[in-house]
Amino acid sequence: MSTLDSIAAGSAVGSLLPLLTAVVQRPGWSVRTKKIVATVTALLAGLVTVGSVGGLEQFQHGLPTLGTLAAVLAASQAAYDLVWKPTSIAPAIESVTSPKEAPAAG
Predict the structure, then answer these.
(1) What band does 105 get if pLDDT is binned at 50, 70 and 90?
(2) Which domain holds residue 81?
(3) Dihedral (Cα; 23, 28, 29, 32), 10-degree rounding
(4) Is residue 102 a part of any domain in this protein?
(5) What is the rounded distance in angstroms from the CA atom of residue 102 to the CA atom of residue 14?
(6) Residue 103 lies in a domain
(7) How far is the C-alpha of 88 from the C-alpha of 85, rounded, in Å?
(8) What whole-number percentage of the chain has pLDDT above 90?
(9) What are phi and psi of 65, to 5 degrees?
(10) Has residue 2 got a pLDDT over 60?
(11) Is 4 within 8 Å of 68 (Cβ atoms)?
């Protein structure tokens, strides 16, 4: 696979990744914790993308691998800020998938 194919796949994965990340994140977490979770998730998704698009031998080429990781990270952050957050889709997924607190015993 070419570097362009790998980066294009990374951008596609990254644009949908905030929806998956929202399943894991919780509304009560700090902004810093949410950023760390989103970044780690994007980097892991980037590694999976590199392996699935270019095969394991793709990891021998540092620049295409780094480009794909950067594409996933950039696309995920941009998609979250421009699409998923303003439409309230990602925050709604966070709320729906978060465990509900048990009512206090009276």
Answers:
(1) low
(2) 3-95
(3) 120
(4) no
(5) 35
(6) no
(7) 5
(8) 59
(9) -65, -45
(10) yes
(11) no
DSSP string spanning 40-51?
Answer: HHHHHHHHHHHH
Query: Tokens 């607190």 map to which residue?
Result: 101
Asked whether the CA dihedral 52, 77, 31, 19 is positive or negative, the reply is negative
Q: How many domains does the chain have?
A: 1
The span from the CA of 68 to the CA of 83, in Å, is 21
Q: What pTM, to 2 d.p., does this model score?
A: 0.82
Q: Which residues contact 95 (CB under 8 A, 6 or more apart)?
A: 27
Residue 7 one-letter amino acid: I
Residue for token pair 């509304």: 27
Contact partners, residue 54, CB within 8 Å, separation at least 6: 1, 5, 6, 61, 64
Residue 9 lies in a domain: yes
Where is average pLDDT lowest: 23-27, 53-57, 74-78? 53-57
Length of the chain: 106
